[in-house]
Specification:
Elements lengths: L55 H26 L4 H25 L5 H5 L6 H18 L10 H40 L1
């Protein structure tokens, strides 16, 4: 037994005593952090799919970090060249920073590249960027297919069932109306016959 893992002795257990991690185990998504535990949902329909929301603060931080990296690269390049005064370096860096921040603001309004190609460019640790790209792609697809925002899966079939029930009720009401009309005609005929 090493590091308190496994059996103290494999004798009588029918195994070799070798313990390994189950690589096929997947943690259920509904138990993950952004989702409430089962049964405690405040929504009427907790089975509805809710995509994982990206953290806007982290996305903004990463964008600003990219700007600062490019500014630092410029500063490093100017310092390597030499012959440029410190004040000139600061002025150029501030100018580049303002330009990149303005471009970043414009890019947010338009929306960056979305789609499978854009999602493939993310690294495994960029889960918020991936979630943001996926949400933008889903929104584009929803608009392209003209799907309403309040759409629920299977709602077409529920509406169709409601129409069928309503049609059956109308038919039953029509039959009752016919029977009532027949009764009235028979009652009139009986009255006429008795006279």
């Amino acid at each position: 037994m090493s590091d308190n893992v496994g059996l103290s002795t494999p004798r009588g257990s029918g195994t070799s005593g070798y313990v390994q991690r189950n690589l096929a185990h997947m943690r259920p998504r509904d138990m993950a952090a952004p989702y409430p535990p089962r049964g405690s949902s405040s929504d009427a329909d907790s089975s509805q799919y809710r995509p994982r929301q990206p953290d806007k603060g982290l996305l903004e931080h990463d964008r600003k970090r990219e700007v600062e990296v490019r500014v630092f690269e410029l500063r490093d390049q100017l310092e390597e060249e030499g012959g440029v005064e410190e004040e000139e370096i600061d002025a150029r860096c501030d100018e580049l920073r303002k330009k990149l921040l303005a471009e970043m603001e414009k890019g947010q309004g338009r929306g960056a590249a979305v789609g499978p190609a854009a999602r493939r460019s993310f690294k495994m640790h960029q889960v918020h960027e991936l979630a943001d790209a996926k949400m933008k792609e889903s929104e584009r697809l929803r608009q392209a297919l003209k799907i309403s925002k309040d759409y629920q899966e299977g709602s077409h079939w529920r509406r169709q069932e409601d129409r069928l029930k309503k049609g059956l009720e109308q038919e039953a009401g029509a039959e009752k109306g016919e029977r009532g009309a027949d009764r009235e005609r028979n009652a009139d005929r009986d009255r006429d016959y008795r006279r």
